[in-house]
Amino acid sequence: MIFVSDNAVGVAPEILAAMTEAAEGSHLPYGNDVWTQGLEERFKQVFETDDLHVMPIATGTAANALTLSAMMPAYGRVLCHEVSHIYFEEISAVEFFSGGGRLVPMPGENGKLDPADLRRHVERGRRGNLDPEQPFVVSISQMNEMGIVYQPEEIARIGDFCREFGYPLHMDGARFANALAGLGCAPADITWRAGVDALSFGATKNGGYSSDAIVFFGPVSRKDVELRFKRSGHIFSKAYALSSQLTAYLEDDLWLRNARHANAMAAMLADRLENIGIRLESRPDGNEVFAHIPDDAVTRLRDAGGRFYPWHLFGDDAYRLVTSWTTSPADIDRFLSIVSASAA
Amino acid sequence: MIFVSDNAVGVAPEILAAMTEAAEGSHLPYGNDVWTQGLEERFKQVFETDDLHVMPIATGTAANALTLSAMMPAYGRVLCHEVSHIYFEEISAVEFFSGGGRLVPMPGENGKLDPADLRRHVERGRRGNLDPEQPFVVSISQMNEMGIVYQPEEIARIGDFCREFGYPLHMDGARFANALAGLGCAPADITWRAGVDALSFGATKNGGYSSDAIVFFGPVSRKDVELRFKRSGHIFSKAYALSSQLTAYLEDDLWLRNARHANAMAAMLADRLENIGIRLESRPDGNEVFAHIPDDAVTRLRDAGGRFYPWHLFGDDAYRLVTSWTTSPADIDRFLSIVSASAA
Amino acid sequence: MIFVSDNAVGVAPEILAAMTEAAEGSHLPYGNDVWTQGLEERFKQVFETDDLHVMPIATGTAANALTLSAMMPAYGRVLCHEVSHIYFEEISAVEFFSGGGRLVPMPGENGKLDPADLRRHVERGRRGNLDPEQPFVVSISQMNEMGIVYQPEEIARIGDFCREFGYPLHMDGARFANALAGLGCAPADITWRAGVDALSFGATKNGGYSSDAIVFFGPVSRKDVELRFKRSGHIFSKAYALSSQLTAYLEDDLWLRNARHANAMAAMLADRLENIGIRLESRPDGNEVFAHIPDDAVTRLRDAGGRFYPWHLFGDDAYRLVTSWTTSPADIDRFLSIVSASAA
Amino acid sequence: MIFVSDNAVGVAPEILAAMTEAAEGSHLPYGNDVWTQGLEERFKQVFETDDLHVMPIATGTAANALTLSAMMPAYGRVLCHEVSHIYFEEISAVEFFSGGGRLVPMPGENGKLDPADLRRHVERGRRGNLDPEQPFVVSISQMNEMGIVYQPEEIARIGDFCREFGYPLHMDGARFANALAGLGCAPADITWRAGVDALSFGATKNGGYSSDAIVFFGPVSRKDVELRFKRSGHIFSKAYALSSQLTAYLEDDLWLRNARHANAMAAMLADRLENIGIRLESRPDGNEVFAHIPDDAVTRLRDAGGRFYPWHLFGDDAYRLVTSWTTSPADIDRFLSIVSASAA
User: At D342, is the secondary structure helix, strand, or coil?
Assistant: First the structure.
């Protein structure tokens, strides 16, 4: 009954197998190995474009902060949701990587940015007696911290806003696979086709060992990005350690299969909780369920080894339940039986 | 009819005289001159404490950002009002000086922080599923960007909150003299006696040439602060250039006399505007009047050479009128006559 | 014939086994797993002290730069050798992590710092008409970029200097195991007993997958260091990914066995090269041989798949040959036979 | 007998007069005043080009560090002399402003960079097994810390090197007027015509109150530079405070007249010291004399109120004597009479 997070479960066997295969051979360091050198081609296929650069990176925080730092000057600003991961849970990593930039927390229903709010914010600055206009970047999370997914056309509207004002658009895709599995569209539809310039592509939460990736769509100074990797200590001499994971992750749609399973388990969990009268914050778009659970049920669940975080954002009785590629219907049965007993 | 800002008017003759006197002699550089060496003693008298360190600095933005950077680690956070000068008008100076810290914009009536909001913010973090607890600094503006002054007991309540949590308290006093003149209390009453640890002490807006000061109450590493001055290019080899201004500013209560005059002119302006039916945002506590002026009056005023900023924060017909030590009743007469004509 | 670097070879099977074991289970994230929680105890045994903090980190550059940033203020300075890895091969990572600190390149025979030079540098600053005294950290590499090892008493003399002036002492131990295997002393003898305050403890180059560690001896603010990890994107949610490697690395002296083997292969390679008249830059203390190889031999070696870097530091005919835990006598036979053929 | 520095003497009356004139009027803030708006035109005339941007700045350290930060990315490197002011006397201001760049100290006779050394350094990096190639900026001082001046053709050779490699060239001109007065050429000849892209233009040391300027030759993002000013607290709301000084400084060749006088006094001092057998480090090119003075003479001079710094760089008996626009032949007479007495 581990619902604490999708990073709390084991590693997909296909990924472990690739890592092991890579680790048994010798490879020239710093990316001059077959795993790393084949990776970009795979991403090009997945994203249906040749105009793309990929760099593996060990953590999601580094992926977000390093990417954003490459998209703006040191005094730049990132328009992001006030409950986005970069603003709320990654300390001041963006401020650090950028050398003193600023995250601007924006409101927005369901954890989503609204182009109208973005426009208002920017135009107020332009008319302003106040703050002079700054170079902005916009960052959205797909899916976001409330477990909600942007529809392709919602992203496209933000992309249109960005193009109008000349701002780059970044997507935090720590749970990109879950978003995609829910939408059923092509990866390109919610990235470059909708105006996204750079993507933090998550794998760790969906079966990886510890590897995400940065994907730039369109022109980027690869040397600039590599120097940012190096000075932040994110170059792996054994580059295959990361790229072998990502290779297996994309092979035979493992990433989508894992995400579909996790999403299905979340849907099942949501249905069954609602059936017994547990109020949900919203219907899950991916693999996160936010539920209002009575105190006595929480106590019983914890006593039985249940692991999950309170989510005060939604109230004192709110909890986040995250499913993963390892969640089984039996886990859900067990969880429900304990909650029901208590609800009864 | 210059109401654009109190930094748009000339320099007080007493200050120019002191600058000239200093500039005519030879002085060892880097503060080894009589003007700089006598300065701390004057501040100790004004603030009624020996436990104080003063360092002149050329601009208010530098005063705020450098001081805050000395009060927190590079990943620290500053709780400040969402319309504070440091958040709204000084770009990311604090982020730059601190090496990647963050300003946390807080709401609050009349531009004032409320200890209850601060407590809620901090406790949410402590309980949090979200952002781990950070080292915080609290920063308030006296008077603030809405022209409002904190009462001594309001500051003391914020000071109590800071002591309870172990956070330092900073005050942006760009218009400290105007606040003080309005309150009629002792400088100590709204600084160290109320729990303020460091003050950005403004002089430029109140008759100075270009000099403010940083005042630390209580222990501080002077060497640390001086190295921060040096690496940000804020050490003046001709230190007397700043300290002579500040010396004259404090002499014979020049600072308070100038501020009282500016405040009295603002009160007169406010009274007379209200008398002819112009709506004010609030009664001025200091030398700033925020008024809702009809478009035709604005046009006439500008045609007649009137200078003042729109203040969109309060609406499309809102304007900020700042009085200064140079504002005369005749200026106000003229302003009113033009507004009245139009209102008629 | 991979002599390009010890990071160009595969991963030790014992380490892969531990990683696999860890990856198959569920673990609470962010270090709340058995692998991570047991790690500090193992380091305490290895280093014979309880006064020690360990934090796994993915790369050596991050280990060095993050550690140094925690040992000095943002305007601090690191006295290091002019051919140290931190100065010569890690770009400006220290400058980045520290927020603008400076590395001071020092000369020194055999890539070693000499306490007399350190003293001269510091005293010149103290007497100086020039740069005011800065807070310093001293950083040494064990073993260093020239393949040379500090004797315990040499480190102790640097440690004494540091204590006299109040400077912390850091050791870059990317090849710490190789140094130790060469010296045959206890880990404590070349670290805390000799005055070292913090150690970048390498594992990647000696059979690891991709994991090093930071070891602080004596008091340190763990929270400060953790926040530095987080803001630089070096917190692994799956902390076991790193700690499982380190656990296996220390188990049954794997680290020392691997290092002893690599060192023995380097000694054999050095002996045999000298026997056929190839000049070495110095006798290898660890697993690096710097040899002056004729051009024709280099061509033949490369044609036969030999991989190694030129090392211009020692001249145009100088090459670095790095042995590892995987190097076999057969590799050396083959290398020698090709060199000999050419020398003949 | 103030020879401690040219920043230890008073302010030129012409400059004080302009400051006073400016300070007595009202001016729109942030550069919208006649003094600031006319400044660029004056610089265009002085430098014989329209392709130039000028921004006044309060200190030389800020001028250097801010300018260099605008000429390179955060991970850039500045090739500078090992006894340049930016490396030796301005702490880590460049590292701070750039967000973690690095100063690379280079040797060079008489405090001058040699293009051959620059080439060697850069090419070693290019061939290197070591540090990957970085974006470089070159910075030279005119005149330099050893009181020596670059000839126009020496600068042009460095300029040629920079153009070949695509590196920008910066000049620290804290004593630019003294250099120019010594050379007798046009300002353009030692700046843009010789390949200089940006100049820190000093005025404070040559009669200013406290103001230098940054001059960019050729294209530059003015907005980028202004945002760097703002976030480092170097925007003066009363911009005329700086620009009035610079206006008077350039009027009627005041800057050159002051510098010629200071240089003439240095030449006289040097001649007379040599005449009585005092060894000089070199013939002065500008207004700095480095002399080896016996201990007893130093004691007598100090007892008589003489002020000057020891200059350990040139040995334990070396002293720096700086003349200024206020130095009189009588000062030199008195200095010499005391030295002679003692030498006798």
Answer: helix
Residue D252's φ and ψ, nearest 5 degrees, are 50, 35
- Indicate yes or no: CB of A102 within 8 angstroms of CB of B99: no
The architecture in CATH of the region D13-253 reads: 3-Layer(aba) Sandwich (3.40)
Report yes or no: B269 and B13 within 8 Å, Cβ to Cβ.
no
Whole-angstrom Cα distance, residue C210 to residue C12? Answer: 11
If DSSP codes are grouped into helix, strand and coil, which group holds residue D63?
helix
Q: Which two tokens stand for residue C251?
A: 């188990």
What tokens does C175 get?
A: 């090849």
Residue pLDDT, tens place only, A155-181: 999 999 999 999 999 999 999 999 999
CATH of domain B13-254: 3.40.640.10
Handedness of CA B3, B9, B15, B17 (dihedral sign): negative
Comparing alpha-carbon positions, the chain D residue that sits nearest to B209 is D241
DSSP letters spanning C102-123 = EEEEE--GGG---HHHHHHHHH
Q: Give the separation between CA A229 and CA A243, rounded to whole angstroms.
A: 15
C251 phi, psi to nearest 5 deg:
-65, 135
Q: Where are the alpha helices (DSSP H) in chain D?
A: 13-23, 34-47, 60-70, 85-88, 93-98, 115-127, 152-165, 176-183, 222-231, 240-250, 254-275, 295-303, 329-343
Taking contacts as CB-CB distances below 8 angstroms, the residues of chain B near C224 are 73
Angle ∠(D229,A88,A141) on CA atoms, nearest 5 = 95
**Which residues sit opposite C106 in a β-bridge?**
C81
Give me the amino acid identity at C224: D
Task: Pick A255-343's CATH classification: 1.10.10.10, 3.30.420.310, 3.90.1150.10, 3.40.1180.10.
Answer: 3.90.1150.10
Q: Give the number of other CB atoms < 10 A from CB of residue D304.
A: 12
- Residue B93 per-residue DSSP state: H
Asked whether the beta carbons of residue C73 and residue B227 sit closer than 8 angstroms, the reply is yes
Q: Which residue is it, tokens 């973005």? A: A118
> Quick one: tokens of B324?
């200064």
Inter-chain touch A99–D231, beta carbons under 8 Å: no
Tell me the backbone φ, ψ of residue D111, rounded to 5 degrees: 75, 15
Q: Which residues, in sequence order, are CB contacts of C116 under 8 Å at separation 6+?
A: none
Q: How many angstroms separate the CA atoms of B320 and B83, rounded?
A: 14
The reply to whether residue C92 touches residue D101, judged by beta carbons under 8 angstroms, is yes
Shortest Cα–Cα distance, C97 to chain A (Å): 7
Distance of alpha carbon B98 from alpha carbon C22, whole angstroms = 39
Q: Which chain D residues contact residue A75 at CB under 8 A?
A: 227-228, 231
Candidates D97, D94, D205, D92; CA nearest to D143 is: D205
The answer to whether D13-253 and D255-343 have equal CATH topology is no
Answer yes or no: pTM beyond 0.90: yes
Q: What is the mean pLDDT of each run of 10 residues along chain B (344 residues)?
A: 90 97 92 95 98 98 98 96 93 96 95 95 67 81 96 98 96 98 97 98 97 96 94 97 98 98 98 97 95 96 93 91 97 95 58
Cα–chain-centroid distance for residue A280? 22
Q: Would you state the pLDDT for residue B128?
A: 52
3-state secondary structure of C318: strand
Give the whole-angstrom CA distance, residue D7 versus residue D323.
Answer: 10
Query: B240-250 and B254-275 helices cross at what angle (nearest 10)?
Result: 70
Could you state, in order of their start, the residue ranges of all structural domains in chain C? 13-254, 255-343
pLDDT confidence of residue A131: 52
Closest among C75, C79, C65 to C100, alpha carbons compared: C75
Distance CA A18, CA C162 (A): 47
CA nearest D96 in C: which residue?
A: C100
Dihedral, CA of residue D156, residue D160, residue D166 and residue D171, to nearest 10: -10
Please, are residues B62 and B54 in contact by the beta-carbon 8 Å criterion? no
- Summarize pLDDT for A178-208 with one digit per residue, the tens: 999 999 999 999 999 999 999 999 999 999 9
